[in-house]
Design brief:
This protein has 12 helices and 10 strands. The chain has helices at 28-43, 63-71, 77-81, 117-132, 166-170, 174-182, 215-240, 244-259, 265-281, 289-298, 301-308, 314-329; strands at residues 6-15, 53-57, 87-91, 96-100, 106-113, 139-140, 144-145, 157-164, 186-190, 202-207. Helix 8 (244-259) crosses helix 12 and helix 11 packs across helix 12. The longest helix has 26 residues, at 215-240. It is globular and about 65 Å long. 39% of the residues are buried.
Length: 330
């Protein structure tokens, strides 16, 4: 089943305003003008969705709050590296977000559970249309939407799926798969995109081509390849799940998570990945996939600190993380 492999879907649209330089060339005053225009375009619309958004000035967040947003994949690491003149519009359930003045003036994002590419794009398209009614986008008839980075020209769309691939990782098939995917206009990386390492066997599969292809075609291509990867992962899981050593590793992982007093971030993700595999194979029945997925987000260092409402040292986080895992799983 794809739900055992595909954790979430994300669709992101890059847009810029015609009458302003790209953010890298914008003055502080220019950034503030862009922020106000985008904020007003959403808040002043007649759409009921507008009231669901909160407005956040990035400069007013603590460093930990900013990093937590990165951990939850709501904003990019680059977005929190320089917070002046940057803002975020965020829905209550955090599934819809608009980064203002990142690499482009607007980075609109939709996140959905499971494999939901068409649904995520449909929501993104509606939100994009709502903004377009009140903003003048930088658009060229030949090139499409104009973006600061040429790799986003055209549709300005990046669609991705978050995959849990423990069996393909254990069988060392990821590097071979990555090479084949690049020929198809797709890339597979760590959970946080370019430059990030895969933790807990989490991988992000996304489209690379935005020029000369429609959004529908890009999404269809990504969906087809995702389904192929799901099938390969499930085949590899069927083989691995028969191994007594793998079964033992899964049982031990759950036992450690239920009893450990200190737990590092890396160990927690590795053990939770094993448990997630055990749930999918039917070996573990007392814990749900949803619980594991929530824990994978909650054990992230900054998110753990923000949720605890305390100033935690690295060692304090390891103790707090173990406590959270014990209380949730026992």
């Amino acid at each position: 089943m794809s739900s055992d492999v595909v954790i979430s879907t994300r669709v992101r649209l890059a847009r810029n305003l015609r009458d302003f330089p790209f953010p890298c060339r914008l003055s502080q005053q220019g950034r503030e003008k862009v922020t106000e225009k985008v904020k007003s375009a959403l808040k002043d619309s007649n759409s009921p969705i507008a009231s669901d958004f909160s407005f956040i000035k990035m400069s007013e967040l603590t460093p930990q709050q900013g990093v937590s947003l990165v951990e939850k994949r709501i904003v990019s690491p680059e977005f929190i590296s320089d917070t002046e003149g940057r803002a975020l519009l965020l829905s209550k359930d955090e599934s819809l977000s608009i980064m203002i003045n990142e690499e482009d003036h607007i980075r609109l994002q939709v996140i959905r559970d499971g494999l939901s590419l068409e649904e995520a794009y449909d929501t993104a398209d509606k939100l994009d249309t709502l903004l377009d009614e009140n903003l003048d986008y930088a658009f060229d008839k030949k090139l499409g939407y104009l973006t600061q980075c040429p790799t986003n020209l055209g549709t300005g769309m990046r669609a991705s799926v978050m995959l849990h691939l423990p069996a393909l990782e254990k069988s060392r098939a990821i590097s071979r798969i990555a090479g084949n995917l690049s020929k198809l206009g797709l890339t597979i990386r760590g959970a946080y995109g370019e430059g990030s390492e895969p933790n807990g066997a989490m991988y992000q599969l996304s489209n690379q081509v935005t020029l000369g292809i429609s959004e529908k075609a890009a999404i269809e291509n990504l969906k087809n390849i995702t389904n192929q990867l799901v099938a390969q992962e499930n085949q590899a899981r069927d083989r691995l799940a028969k191994s007594i050593e793998v079964q033992d590793n899964i049982s031990r992982s759950l036992g450690i998570l239920k009893s450990a007093l200190v737990m590092t971030h890396e160990e927690a993700l590795s053990l939770l990945s094993n448990v997630r595999f055990g749930i999918a194979s039917g070996q573990i029945t007392e814990v749900s996939t949803e619980t594991v997925d929530k824990l994978m987000k909650a054990v992230e260092p900054a998110t753990l600190t923000v949720n605890s409402n305390k100033n935690l040292s690295a060692h304090d986080r390891d103790i707090e993380r173990a406590k959270l895992l014990r209380e949730t799983l026992s």
